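Subject: Interface between my chains keeps coming out wrong

I've been trying for a while to get a sensible model of this assembly. When I model each chain on its own everything looks fine, but I need the whole thing in one frame so I can look at the contacts. Pasting all components below, labels as-is. Any help appreciated, I'm running out of ideas.
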Amino acid sequence: MGLYHYTLNIEDQQLIELCREGDSAAQRVLYDRYVQAMYNRVIRMVADRHLAEDILQEVFLKVFRYLPSFKGDSTIGAWIKRIAINTTIEHLRGKRRIDYTDTLPENGIPHPASVEEPPEVSMATIHSAIKQLPAGSRVVLTLYLLEGYQHQEIAQILDISESTSKTQYRRGRQLLQEILKSMDNGIKGR
Amino acid sequence: MDQLEKKIRENQAELDRIESVDADALWQKIQQPEARIRPLPARSGSGWQLQVGRNWQLTAAAAVLLLIGVSIWLIQPPGQESMAGANLSVEDYYPEIADEEMAFRRTIARKEAELNLDGLNRQEFIDIFNELDELEKIHRRQMQDLPEVFDNDEWVSTLMRYYEQKLRILERLSREIDKQKQVEERSRARSI
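Reply #2:
Try treating it as a single job with all components included. I did that and got this:
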């Protein structure tokens, strides 16, 4: 049984200590514990496999570099998640111009009550549908619905107005329903 | 919250396991020497340990590089700051204080907008503005030092003190503006 397998069962806290000492087996275990979840979070925001991998590489380099400054105020998972989200946002802000103004008029967005119930779809289908959203509403929807940011914070992070964030969210939610419906019809039509 | 939002939120953990990445290939990339960054030393204790004699060629090469670096820094025209680390922010070094820092920045931005700093006559509140300028100067210097001192707890508390001080100065400015308004109103009332 190698060092990696021995390290597999140890708690996060002990793992962090070993990583801080530069133990590469421990670093690999920490990486393996979080890489898939972080990849899914990143790819939902950027919808591009190669870009998501590049961002993820940067994320884990930061994680190992800044691990000595991790105070343990949150769980290591939450800390890594924050680095992943921040790095993705930084990337979206710096290298890609995302149009957040391609909004539908307010009256063009149905009120939640008037939206049909979603078809019974799997989480894999929802994941795929989120990736099909236009970049602006995809980023806002992900931050609000999945990462728990408020519109005020999203506005600040993405340098847009709060109302644009809300409109993009409503638009994303509506498009998501439509995409899911068409995917569901496609499946049933086969 | 509609049914779809509810479903997504309740099954988020499942959503994070849908796609798989080639973890081995990515790990290889992370391990490549050009990408690999050694962990930083822990915050406590001294970060400096020069072991001359152990490998004198490396030490000599490092010394030459250091001299070149210092020379470039010395001949750099004033005001032209190094771009090294320009894209790095506090949250890159201390992700765990990012929220606290963001809250401070938000409060300060709100206060500045409320006071309409750019619209104020600086001469009327010259002492307060000088104090603000001085504080900003010190803060800029601290930010430039960030890449070198990121393992320093003291630096984080200095940064937080900066935000607190700035807020206190802005509060004082706000009180001074109010006082001035009251004086003006009283003199206007007297002239009627």
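Reply #3:
Confirming on my end. The helical segments of chain B are 3-10, 12-15, 23-31, 56-75, 90-93, 98-115, 126-149, 153-191.
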